[in-house]
Design brief:
about 425 residues; alpha+beta; nine-stranded antiparallel β-sheet; five-stranded antiparallel β-sheet; 24 strands
Length: about 425
């Protein structure tokens, strides 16, 4: 039996087993010529995928020793080389780790010939200090746009807690049985997880891509209510729209949403993350190639306990995000807060707060420009509700069609 401290998180710490058949293939070593010259590592980089570390996994004081975790992530733009960011942001002990990256074929299986062993300052392993992140050396790898990558970590010894993103809306894989990070077949990865561990971002070398858009938000940005493992969050649909443009007009799209996140207060549970202002530097301002931020937050300040019913205080937090982003040369577009009539705690006082916040946002006195997400998905027959065809069913989170409508409401010229 596995001890409580060694269970990987699968949404609510539930594990399932993948049925695998056939003999495991030999793990392939990365080619020796995949390093990118230092000169190429200095410019032309842009984020293609990102998540926001939210907390440390509960009951993992020793981390996941001897685990290989194959995180499945999805690119927005492609490039000719890649580098990976690993996070020990919520660890309290040094994190010894090694890692690989590959193009995903199906589930935990890598496209043959794409497996790359990552190095850190030339070394095959790195020890990440508590509270810190590490960036790998670049490796030469043709990274397609709009495709899955496999970022696999191996942690040989105790460390912890394990930094993670709780609501991945994506199935990833792991094994407790040692270092299989370089295995192309994926046959050793017989268990599943629905969260991302350790990995925080992937950059690509793409000199013709003009930058990245960072989505700062809560569960609506995180994709709650969308189809799992299908990449149907509103930032994914935005990435699809941008990908249809000529390459010089393309942008990477980076998702820094955390489910249940708030603007002004940390969540009542650690997995809800630090408040948006506190996490801004790590999750937004240092994102590779960032030029524009889309902020959609505030509904949890209004509806979670303690409930914030002073619209001006909530908007003041939004203004602080704008000021800090401007100091780094970034534009900030503000999203109006979407309808929630029918949600379990809905009442007229909370609704009045939402309407007032949206009124202030629409005034043009907070953000550089406005994206009217509220208008995009509200029901014309009852504007306080979401259109039924856009509702995931809980009256707070849109479903796939609602997320697409939100992405379609974004004027690409503003980005």
């Amino acid at each position: 039996m596995v001890s409580k401290g060694h269970r990987l998180v699968v949404a609510a710490l539930v594990l399932s087993t993948v049925v695998a058949s056939g003999a495991a293939s030999t793990a392939g070593e990365a080619p020796v010529d995949t390093a990118v010259p230092v000169k190429s590592a200095l410019g032309g980089w842009v984020g293609t995928w990102q998540t926001a570390p939210a907390a440390g996994v509960e009951n993992t004081p020793n981390g996941y020793p001897n685990y290989s975790i194959r995180n499945v992530v999805h690119t927005s733009v492609g490039g000719e080389a890649a580098r990976v960011r690993l996070s020990n942001a919520f660890g309290t002990a040094p994190l010894p780790v090694s890692a690989t990256v590959a193009v995903g074929e199906n589930g935990p299986k890598a496209v043959p010939g794409t497996m790359r062993e990552l190095t850190f300052g030339g070394a095959k392993t790195i020890t990440i200090p508590p509270g810190a992140e590490a960036v790998s050396d670049p490796v030469r790898l043709t990274v397609p746009a709009d495709t899955n990558l496999l970022v696999t970590t191996f942690t040989p010894t105790p460390s912890g807690p394990v930094t993670y993103h709780p609501l991945a809306m994506q199935t990833s894989y792991f094994t407790r049985n040692g270092d299989f990070a370089k295995e192309e077949s994926g046959l050793s990865f017989t268990e599943k997880t629905n969260v991302w561990h350790y990995v925080a971002g992937v950059d690509v070398h793409a000199p013709r891509v003009r930058g990245a858009v960072v989505a700062l938000g809560d569960s609506i940005t995180d994709g709650a209510g969308s189809t799992a493992s299908a990449n149907r969050r509103w930032p994914d649909y935005l990435a699809d729209r941008l990908l249809a443009r000529p390459e010089p007009q393309r942008l990477g799209v980076l998702n820094s949403g955390i489910s249940a996140n708030r603007v002004l207060l940390d969540g009542s549970a650690a997995r809800m993350g630090q408040n948006a202002v506190a996490r801004l530097d790590r999750d937004v301002l240092t994102s590779t190639g960032a030029r524009t931020v889309i902020m959609l937050e505030g509904i949890n300040d209004i509806q979670q306990l303690p409930q914030q019913t002073d619209a001006e205080q909530l908007v003041a937090g939004m203004r602080q995000v704008v000021l800090q982003a401007h100091a780094r040369g970034l534009r900030v577009l503000g999203g109006t807060i979407t309808p929630f009539k029918g949600w379990r705690v809905y009442n007229e006082t909370l609704e009045a707060t939402r309407l007032k916040v949206n009124e202030i946002i629409r005034s043009g006195k907070v953000f550089d420009d406005v994206i009217d997400f509220d208008k995009a998905i509200r029901d014309p027959q009852d504007p306080l509700k979401m259109r039924p065809e856009y509702d995931s069913g809980d009256h707070l989170h849109p479903g796939d069609a609602g997320f697409k409508a939100m992405a379609d409401a974004i004027d690409l010229a503003l980005l």
